[in-house]
Amino acid sequence: MRIFVASAWPYVQSVPHLGNLVGSILSADVFARYARLKYGKENVIFVSGSDEHGTPIEIEAIKRGVSPKSLTDQAHDYDKRLFLGTWNISFDNYTRTESEVHKNFVKEFLLGVSKYISVEEEELPYCEKDKLFLPDRFVRGTCPYCGFEDARGDQCDRCGRLLTPSILINPKCAICGTPPVLRKTKHWFFDLRPFSESIKQWITASPEMPENVKGTALSWINEGLKPRSLTRDNAWGIPAPFSGAQGKTIYVWFEALLGYLSATLEYFTAKGEPDKWMEFWENGKVRSYYFIGKDNIPFHAVILPAMLMASERNYALPTIIGATEYLLYEGQKFSKSRKIGIWIDEAPHIMETDYWRFLLIRMRPEEKDMNFTWTEAIRIVNTELNDDIGNLVNRVVTMINRYFQGEIPEPRNLKDTDNKLLFQVRETVDSVGRMFDRTKLKGGTELILSLARDTNAYLNSKAPWDKIKSEPEDASNTLYVAGSAVKAIGLMLYPVIPTKAEVIYRQLGLDIANASWDDAKEPLKPGHRVGKPEPVFKKLPTDFEKKLGELLEKIRGEVEKERPTLLK
């Protein structure tokens, strides 16, 4: 079985913040690393890329008197360095919508589903001041469903309903604030209606699809699917391949969804195996996982399946769409203009990225909106990372070196308490695997922490430092069992904190590079030599939060200088 992993393509006009990161790319990376351990590296592919077309970038380029591509080249390279280098995201292919493979694939795919595409004339908002048609996001107004006064023309940020500019109340141009007028123009539409029942049956029958995804998709379907515009009146994008569509480009949402397929094709083409890509897309032979924010559910749970169904190729539909709720920052939405939140090029200047990776997965909004607070962040680092995990590793490795000259002792006459913890290790590895398979990453870390705490309690109750002389057999059994638990904890943490997990494994005298998930259930071998102990984590100082404001101001000034033009 092949495993396909994808994260939503970040729009290249802005640097992602922590909420963006955990909602898609970081979550996908944790799952992809787990999947490689569980199912074999050769059976997993993880892709994403920069979404770089559309009117916002075109307008920014016009303002600056440069080409859109000159702006997105810099921004794409900057983001890619952050993801692959700073954040240690293990993409097999992080590409871009300006890729020639992507552009050609999109045009060929849409021509292949042309029987579901029709041409219609419609009236669209036109800004007479800016002299351009306004795409969905460049019309703002009041949502007709919930009354939110700053809804975009494609979606309401408050209620999540998909919108069109024509149904907004009191619409205004998002660029200049002028009320737009309606002008006739011709566009190409993809008809979603023929797929309504098939999508409904697929989403309803899925035993694994999260309930928030099912609910949102079914709500949209029950309202009645309609033809959706495929084209836009802007120059920066993939030229529409249809006859008579000169001057039109493909709507960014349709092409970005097809990027999941083109990124897979591009990866195997670069490897000299251009035919192999379909192994990760053929129905019945692949499980596919998509990591997105909840505002993207309709696109992934309705539009993407409809396009895949429209094709004559036997494409696999999503197995699980892991859609997170929103992460707030100290009770508020992230806002760069109001300096609320942390951005992914700022965070590494505050602490190591593995600390951030752990923090964000521990605060991952899997069931409801979650609130990032520094009080909770400090607790997680100081208590969970340092005390529950780091101190356990240090205690066990130190005692094996001190009492057994660095060798794992031979177990003899294990007692019930010893066997109970070994059984818990095996059960935890299986349970964490089941949680991760359901994309419940935060839930998986809860189980890992529970094992760490129980191992610490086991050590305290057994007290091998007291028994090493009076009951040496019991002391050796204790460190054999505790060392095996540390091995399991280190390997299970690898998807979340890969750099620190490698440090833990190195202290155990092991190489994590060739490990598999089920290796975590195997005890350490007697006679195996461990490495030297060293602190894995360190606590944040007690006055950390107090000094954070001043630190952030300094960091932001330096980071802003390094950002490319489009991201300033």
From TrEMBL:
Give the Methionyl-tRNA synthetase anticodon-binding domain ranges.
Answer: 408-543
Main localisation, per the record? cytoplasm
Q: Which GO terms describe its molecular function?
A: ATP binding; metal ion binding; methionine-tRNA ligase activity
Q: What protein name does the entry list?
A: Methionine--tRNA ligase
Database matches in SUPFAM superfamilies: Anticodon-binding domain of a subclass of class I aminoacyl-tRNA synthetases, Methionyl-tRNA synthetase (MetRS), Zn-domain, Nucleotidylyl transferase
Cofactor(s) annotated in UniProt: Zn(2+)
Q: Which GO terms describe its cellular component?
A: aminoacyl-tRNA synthetase multienzyme complex; cytosol
Motif residue range(s): 'HIGH' region: 10-20
